[in-house]
Design a protein that fits this description.
Length: 751
């Protein structure tokens, strides 16, 4: 019965392997990641993979091997060698055992069957350690059975150097029972895309082998010649469900869908959102490949901002201008102005026949609660330095309508970004500005048929018509996060949300920036000697003054450790967000960034009239004339307001000094740029508040150039502090102070 089971297992595996004829793209005993001899190689495998080879000499077939691997989980090998007496072949089952950082441990259980259906088991273990550009592999074979006819008790090892298209490897093996040694060198060189040459020389035994590998898409064919006591040849076929590159570069027709909710980076919550950064990398890989002839994009309802869309628009225009035909289908009932702004970078724009395009422009609405708070009998007492006339964040709580300077500041920003949107539409759709202005001001919502007449789009198609015409035989680009040997040299630190002290923050508030969180991240980065530069991805309107100062100090400390510091501002990097940025070597912004707002305010809600109306009696006892200075139950006198103003003036001066030092400007210049005034990305460049107006990807390239490196996504690591499970559970038990402390506006830099 056992003999029949053994035969059945071997036959089933053979049949199964032949059906899924995919392969591990490495030559047996030629490269370091050989599943047969090193089970820890499974950690480097992607997808469903197989390797099949036939060995022969000048007269006869001498053996064959079939390897089947399932991603990083487990793999099988069946091999037959004619020179093993009385053999039916041997079978190996390999699996990962342990992984920690860049150390990999694997083991295989092996079974040899002879013609009498006897079986002989043995075990092998292997250890692989990955260093930047170097890999060390060690294998101990034949644990538990020294009489094994297949593998004698032996140890072998390889040390490989890998750089771009070159692999140089030194290897050795010692068989203890027969006292046999071998050692030598192996190299694999990429001659051109899809073509590799490889060779090895055993110095101890004086024989060499050489061969070539041709790769087409996910399939490779190899031929190998080995000169030992006689001539030996190998022909191999390799295939894999996933290619070991970042993209299916050979695909000429690709399609992507832009829809749903995006975070710039992957969400830290269990409710994962799509990553805009990943989409940008996919598009950049399409551009770099220069292979795609057609890129079809379907745009549905999404949460992308104008700043986000600008990131996509720039790379899509590069793809279009490189010769790829970009076709965009707007699949929405009412198409927002922002999505039309994205679509104009396409060669062709189509919509559903019953769609409408909103062409009315952009708007921003701010609610003013002054009268409402009076109705609630709450008096607002907010103070700002006299010079901070543009620091309008206090006005929604103190006034019934905006001041003239607040209106002017916001309109200047909106006018600046609106002109960029208009120019993009005019240039890409070849329209006259006067004609576009007529459409925007007189036809804010346009049916698709009318939009075609106005040349806003190229036509209308039903979804199935678009699919038949532009989506047939297309594939979705697949960014495969393959294991890389590259040393991580650039760190990205996302910094998003309002800036608050730790005790006022909670995971239920969404994204929050706290000094404690980033102190831990920066301490980790200080110890990583390989990290040359840190990029702060900033999206913050500001917040607590003291917390902003602490993070600013932590960044300076990180800079003193030898790291270069860069800040990239996405939608907003204002007030406290700009305070933090003053520590950077360079500041990059998006054209749609709201930045500046260099100023400060403080205040509180005075609630005595509300409590009187509710018939609530309050009794305050104090030791010290100003002990209840920040209490919402006491009202600031004119003297108190002057005290607060004097204090804020000092903090305002410190803020300006930080900016002057960081941007290498004189205080007089900063005085003119400050006052709480906001700037768009382009206007901030004119006023020297930033260094370049570019996309995030262009910022990455700039940082690589500054640090003397060639741009490589594999050299980038993202450091993002997460809410741990225990901290979230604690938040269920205790409410943050922001929910219980009504005096939340004290010393506030928020815009």
């Amino acid at each position: 019965m056992l003999k029949k089971i053994t035969i059945s297992i071997i036959l089933i595996e053979l049949f199964y392997t032949l059906i899924f004829a995919n392969s591990i793209p490495y030559v047996h005993n030629s490269m370091i990641f050989d599943l047969n001899s090193s089970p820890s190689a499974l950690f480097f495998n992607r997808g469903l993979s197989n390797y099949m080879e036939i060995n022969f000499d000048d007269t006869n077939i001498t053996g064959f091997e079939i390897d089947q691997a399932f991603s990083k989980f487990f793999g099988f090998t069946y091999a037959y060698e004619k020179n093993i007496p009385n053999t039916l072949g041997y079978f190996k089952w390999g699996s990962p055992v342990f992984y920690y950082k860049n150390s990999f441990l694997g083991a295989s259980f092996n079974l040899h069957a002879d013609k009498n259906y006897n079986y002989l088991p043995w075990i092998s273990i292997s250890f692989t350690k990955v260093f930047p550009n170097f890999i060390f592999n060690f294998t101990y074979k034949n644990i538990g059975n020294l009489n094994n006819p297949v593998e004698k008790e032996a140890i072998n090892g390889q040390l490989a150097y890998i750089n771009k298209g070159l692999q140089l490897q030194a290897f050795f093996e010692r068989e203890f029972l027969i006292n046999k040694n071998s050692y030598g060198l192996f190299f694999d060189l990429r001659l051109k895309s899809g073509l590799n040459a490889f060779a090895s020389y055993d110095i101890e035994n004086d024989f060499f082998s050489m061969g070539m590998r041709i790769s087409l898409s996910n399939t490779s064919i190899l031929a190998n010649y080995e000169k030992n006591t006689k001539n030996n040849y190998t022909i191999g076929l390799m295939n894999s469900t996933k290619k070991r590159t970042n993209l299916f570069h050979s695909l000429k027709k690709l399609s992507i869908s832009i829809s749903g909710d995006y975070n710039f980076f992957t969400s830290n919550t269990i409710f994962k959102k799509r990553s805009l950064y990943k989409l940008i990398k996919e598009l950049n890989n399409i551009y770099d490949s220069k292979k795609t002839k057609l890129l079809s994009i379907t745009v549905k309802e999404n949460n992308l901002t104008f700043a986000d869309i600008y990131q996509l628009k720039v790379i899509l225009e590069k793809i279009r201008d490189s010769g790829t035909k970009v076709v965009i289908y707007l699949d929405q009932g009412i198409i927002p102005f922002k999505d039309y702004y994205l679509a104009v970078c396409g060669d062709l724009i189509f919509t559903h026949p019953q769609s409408s395009i909103f062409m009315g422009g952009i708007h921003s609405t701010t609610l003013y609660y002054g009268n409402f708070l009076k109705l609630l009998k709450i008096q607002t007492q907010f103070v700002r330095p006299d010079a901070c006339i543009y620091k309008s964040a206090i006005e929604p709580f103190t006034s019934k309508k905006p001041s003239n300077v607040a209106i002017s500041d916001k309109r200047n920003y909106m006018k600046n970004i609106f002109s960029q949107i208009e120019n993009a539409i005019i240039i890409n759709r070849k329209l006259e500005k006067q004609s576009l202005d007529v459409i925007i001001n007189n036809f804010p919502i346009i049916l698709s048929q009318e939009a075609t007449k106005f040349k806003l789009i190229d036509g209308t198609l039903y979804e199935d018509e678009f699919k038949d015409k532009y989506l047939k035989k297309t594939r979705k680009p697949q960014y495969i996060s393959e294991y890389t040997y590259s040393n991580k040299t650039i760190a990205i630190v996302p910094m998003e949300g309002i800036i608050l002290p730790k005790e006022m923050a909670s995971p239920f508030m969404g994204k929050v920036i706290t000094p404690e969180k980033y102190k831990k991240i920066f301490e980790i980065l200080k110890k990583k000697k390989n990290i040359k530069a840190v990029i702060i991805y900033l999206n913050s309107p500001g917040g607590d003054s003291f917390s902003s100062e602490k993070i600013y100090h932590y960044l300076l400390d990180l800079k003193d450790s030898g790291k270069k510091i860069y800040v990239y501002m996405e939608d907003v990097g204002a007030s406290g967000g700009y305070y933090i940025s003053a520590a950077a070597d360079k500041i990059f912004v998006n054209p749609f960034t709201v930045t500046g707002s260099i100023g400060i305010f403080a205040g509180k809600f005075y609630t005595e009239r509300l409590y009187n109306f509710m018939r609530i009696y309050k009794d305050t006892q104090k030791m010290g004339e100003k002990a209840d200075f920040f209490s919402p139950y006491s009202k600031w006198s004119e003297e108190d307001i002057q005290i607060m103003k004097t204090h804020l003036d000092k903090l305002y001066d410190i803020f300006k000094e930080r900016v002057a030092k960081g941007r290498n400007l004189n205080i007089g210049m900063v005085d003119k740029l400050a006052m709480g005034k906001i700037y768009s990305g382009t206007s901030s460049l004119k006023n020297k508040l930033c260094d370049r107006v570019i996309t995030f990807n262009e910022a990455l390239i700039n940082v690589f150039n500054d640090t003397g490196q060639k741009f490589d996504y594999n050299k980038i690591a993202t450091f993002n502090g997460k809410w741990g499970f225990l901290s979230i559970m604690r938040s269920f038990m205790t409410s943050p102070k922001i929910l219980t402390n009504s005096n939340i506006w004290t010393l506030y830099l928020g815009d």
